[in-house]
Design brief:
Distance between the termini: 31 Å
Structural class: alpha/beta
CATH superfamily of the largest domain: Glycosidases
Shape: globular
CATH class of the largest domain: Alpha Beta
Radius of gyration: 21 Å
Order of helices and strands: HEHHEHEHEHEEEHHHEH
Number of domains: 2
Helix content: 25-40%
Strand content: 5-15%
C-alpha cells in the first residue's frame, strides 16, 4: 500500500501531508486495517496473486524514528490478524522501517506465512550491504525478498543482482518502463509536444496569473497526451538490451 490513510512514510511517495500520521492516528490505523481485510476478502481465492505487501517504505529517516519505529510492527500485527480472519492462504510481505531498509524494528515472526522485504538503492555492492537481512533470515529461519531496486547503471544492476542470487535472495528491479531513459527494461519515446507539459509543470506558479500565462494551448496538451498513450505501447518503445542482460534476461 503506497498511500495508506494518514501517510505511512511522510514524503511524496504516500500522498501525505509531509508526516507519517498513520502511526499517530487511531482512525487512520483502523481504516488501514479495514482496507486490508476487505482487500484480502476479495482476493483470497485469487491464485495469480502471490501475497499482500502491507506498507511501502514506512517512516522516513528524517522523523523521530525512536518514537515512530516501535509503532510499526504492532500495526503490522493488527493488520495481519485482520487479514487472517478472511484469508489464511496468501503470503504477507512486511517491509522494514526507513524506506524498507531497517529490520531492527522486527521481533520473532508472528505468522507462519510472512516474508520480510527490503529495498536497496545507490550503495556499494558487497555482502555487508545485505548482511543485516542475511542475519535476520538465519536467526528466524524466514524468507527475505529484495522488493525494490534499480535507478542505476547496467554494471551496478548486474553486480547487485548477482550478489542477491549468490545468497539465494529473490529480487524485483523496477520500473518496467520509463520515459526516455535506459535504467529500465523498456524506454518510452517522448511525444513531440511532451516538452510543453514539462515546461508548464516546472514553471513558476506562485500566483494564478503565472499559471494562466504559462499554460500551453489546450490543443497542444491534448495532442501530447494522446500521443503518449500511443508511445507507451510496447511496439512503440525501445528495449534496453544492456539492462536486460544485467538482469540475466534474454
Amino acid at each position: 500500500m503506497h498511500a495508506a490513510p494518514g501517510g505511512q512514510t511522510g514524503d511524496n511517495i504516500d500522498d501525505s501531508w509531509g508526516y507519517p500520521f498513520l502511526f499517530e492516528s487511531p482512525e487512520s490505523q483502523q481504516l488501514t486495517v479495514d482496507l486490508w481485510r476487505n482487500l484480502a476478502a476479495r482476493y483470497r481465492e485469487e491464485p495469480a496473486l502471490i501475497g499482500y505487501d502491507l506498507l511501502n517504505e514506512p517512516i522516513a529517516h528524517y522523523f523521530d524514528t525512536a518514537s515512530l519505529n516501535p509503532k510499526l510492527e504492532p500495526l503490522y500485527q493488527r493488520t495481519v490478524s485482520a487479514i487472517r480472519e478472511v484469508d489464511r492462504n496468501h503470503i504477507i510481505f512486511l517491509g522494514g522501517a526507513q524506506w524498507d531498509t531497517n529490520f531492527k524494528v522486527f521481533g520473532p515472526p508472528f505468522d507462519p506465512k510472512l516474508v520480510y522485504t527490503f529495498h536497496k538503492y545507490w550503495m556499494t555492492v558487497n555482502r555487508e550491504a545485505i548482511q543485516e537481512y542475511l542475519d535476520f533470515r538465519e536467526k528466524y529461519d524466514v524468507p527475505i525478498w529484495m522488493g525494490e531496486s534499480g535507478e542505476n547503471t547496467d554494471d551496478w544492476i548486474y553486480s547487485f543482482r548477482t550478489l542477491l542470487e549468490a545468497h539465494n535472495i529473490g529480487w524485483c528491479f523496477w520500473p518496467y518502463k520509463k520515459l526516455d531513459a535506459t535504467s529500465n527494461p523498456v524506454s518510452i519515446n517522448p511525444p513531440d509536444d511532451w516538452a510543453a507539459i514539462i515546461t508548464f509543470a516546472e514553471g513558476p506558479r506562485s500566483t494564478f496569473e503565472e499559471v494562466r500565462k504559462n499554460r500551453p494551448p489546450r490543443e497542444k496538451i491534448q495532442k501530447a497526451l494522446r500521443d503518449y498513450l500511443e508511445q507507451i505501447k510496447f511496439t512503440n518503445c525501445k528495449v534496453n538490451q544492456g539492462y536486460l542482460k544485467a538482469l540475466g534476461l534474454r
